[in-house]
């Protein structure tokens, strides 16, 4: 038991993938080039465990574990988070948003810090700006038909991983001196209200659905 388990180890000597837990365990991948100067800042397995992605301070890379086939290899040095879509069709990387430094774009705005890559061919299909680390992560439906991003106080609904444009936008205006309010709505327009509850003295809420995420199944709301 555990002889075929593949796991990642990150330490002062670098990053490694190992197979097995016993004395016969083997190393199937290593990245030990200057671990102190270029420490591994993020790594992530795909949902099916077939692909491994990491950032070693010099590049962001993804490859198939079984064959070693490289899928993505780009000069993203500051990647802090890596996310795979539910069906592993796309990989999303997040770098901390920075407004300082040289502006190379024509409009002199900061460079996009969220990149979306196609697993099929490794191409970068779109880049967008995600200013807050707490809310950068898109939320997907289980079949990847819809992805939702929180941008400021707006919810942007995208078809699949087409983050270059949104299909629907939901805006909830701020109201002063009002309690926090959690709403559960249907996903299709006109986004009919299913249930709502007010929470006093709460700054944010965490919603935890069951694994299927269907409206008839329960959701746990935790306020902080």
TrEMBL record:
InterPro entries: TIF2A. It comes from the Eukaryota. Keywords: Initiation factor, Protein biosynthesis, Repeat, WD repeat. GO terms for cellular component: cytosolic small ribosomal subunit. GO terms for molecular function: mRNA binding; ribosome binding; translation initiation factor activity; tRNA binding. Signal peptide: none annotated. PANTHER family: EUKARYOTIC TRANSLATION INITIATION FACTOR 2A (PTHR13227:SF0). This is Eukaryotic translation initiation factor 2A. It comes from Angiostrongylus cantonensis.
């Amino acid at each position: 038991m555990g002889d075929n388990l593949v796991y990642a180890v990150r330490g002062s000597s670098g990053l490694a993938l190992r197979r097995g837990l016993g004395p016969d365990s083997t190393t199937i991948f290593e990245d030990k080039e200057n671990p102190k100067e270029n420490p591994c800042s993020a790594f992530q397995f795909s949902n099916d465990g077939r692909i491994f992605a990491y950032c070693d301070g010099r590049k962001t890379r993804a490859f198939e574990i079984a064959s070693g086939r490289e899928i993505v290899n780009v000069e993203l040095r500051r990647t802090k988070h890596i996310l795979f879509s539910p069906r592993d069709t796309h990989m999303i990387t997040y770098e901390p948003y920075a407004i300082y430094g040289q502006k190379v774009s024509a409009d002199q705005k900061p460079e996009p810090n969220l990149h979306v890559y196609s697993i099929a061919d490794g191409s970068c299909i779109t880049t967008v700006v995600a200013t807050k680390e707490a809310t950068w992560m898109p939320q997907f439906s289980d079949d990847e038909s819809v992805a939702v991003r929180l941008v400021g106080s707006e919810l942007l609904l995208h078809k699949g991983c087409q983050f270059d444009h949104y299909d629907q936008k939901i805006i909830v205006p701020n109201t002063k001196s009002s309690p926090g309010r959690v709403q559960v709505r249907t996903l299709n327009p006109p986004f009919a209200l299913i249930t709502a509850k007010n929470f006093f003295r709460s700054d944010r809420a965490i919603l935890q659905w069951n694994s299927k995420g269907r409206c008839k199944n329960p959701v746990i709301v935790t306020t902080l």
